[in-house]
Input
Amino acid sequence: MAGWTTDHARDLARYPSSRRRPDPDLFCQRGSRGLARMKVLERLQDCVGLRFPVVTIGNFDGVHVGHQAVLKVARDRVRSQRGTAIVLTFEPHPLRVLTPGVELKFLCDPEEKLSLLEEAGVDVVVRLPFTREFAAQTPDEFMVQVLHDGLGTRELFVGQNFRFGKERLGTIHTLMEGG
Output
């Protein structure tokens, strides 16, 4: 598992964004039983104002032990920074777009996945539409447009084999060099 942290002041100087004041409705709220009510967002524009966004990225099918380990590290950082635990995922599954016609089997349906993520302590799930245009983003475009400008990512935690961007060219090393 690898972590990517940013020096927010340096990033804002490098990639100025129009971050507005936090929207109190976007923060994790506690229900009557003390459980978090997770938000599900489907546009980056809705992510403005999240406090100290700690992001994990993936499909999280079944939220298996490896997913749980990444989520725990992110959740621990959220607690220490009083931030927001965010899972960035995609709909439909990227392989449905990139390899049409291939039959995919999933461990759980989208609603079960959301329930498992909520149980794991996630505050916000950002479920972005995965299209051929989205898949064509270079790793640098993804880092700037999605991670920095869209989510305001302060820290990012991903699995060790994480790949992203056009032709899966982005790696953990790409993130560390860019962040």
